[in-house]
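Quick log. Single chain, no ligands specified.
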Amino acid sequence: MYEGFLTDVNGIKLGHAEDNVALTGTSVILCEDGFTCGVDVRGAGPGTRETDLLRAENLVQKVHAVFLTGGSAYGLDVGGGIMKFLEENNHGFDVGVGVVPIVPGAVLFDLAVGDSKVRPDFNMGYVAAKNAKKKDETMGNFGAGCGASVGKILGNDFAMKSAIGQSSVKVGDLVVSSIVALNALGDIFDCETGKRIAGVYDRKNKKFLDTNTLYENKFKDYNLFSPANTTISVISTNAKLTKANCNKISQMAHDGYARSINPVHTMNDGDTIFTLASGEVNTDLNLVGILAAKSISRSIANAIYSAKDSGGLVSYNGIK
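-> predicted structure:
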């Protein structure tokens, strides 16, 4: 396991809520006093909320929470519950007659793992926000990782259970951390060891199969495979960044996906990374991006290392 957690950045709170029977859940990152935020969406099948306002030229400069959730597009309903919690505590964009909490978020597809009729909703969003705390070391089958899986080109009989992972990297006063809800189509690697740690797994013969080779050899058979993927993440940092800077960091952080997930950013993924910045430390933008990609890769590995068998899916800990 790699060290560090998203909440190593001051001003960040993290909370989770999940349904362990239906196998779905939500993770909420609160930054109640407002953090600068950016996003970069690389997958071709995203489900997102409030991402247009993160464009550099648009009015709102800070957000008050970001969520990662299961439930596919149905899971976007959690945003309302998070807004309610923030409004009750007077956190949001001041509009004169009250506050409007700014809450972007992204969804992953976990409907094929548990009960597809049960999804994260308004109440789960509220509970996850209420559960948020300043020090959160949660990893594994929790929150948005409850129903996550990887290596899905041959369906659930060959897929593996994934989860959520966290990590952080520090250079001097600079802190860059991340949380990843890993729900990828592709095979997963620990990029610092070069070892394949999850993916398409042949349980009978106890070996990994290669997603790219499978697709190359039988691509006609896989053209209609389920769009049951998407890896969604949040970077947090104490760096002083503009919205444009945060968008760039999110872009650079996708290198962490590319190093650890193969294939990635397909037509059937909705891969999305948000970046939150508290604005405390002056630093070099390139350094923040380099550390963001490193943290993302480590969080991906931690998502696999912390996963447990669930929903009929075997995990890294179930086969090692």
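The helical segments are 78-88, 122-130, 211-222, 243-260, 285-305, 316-319.
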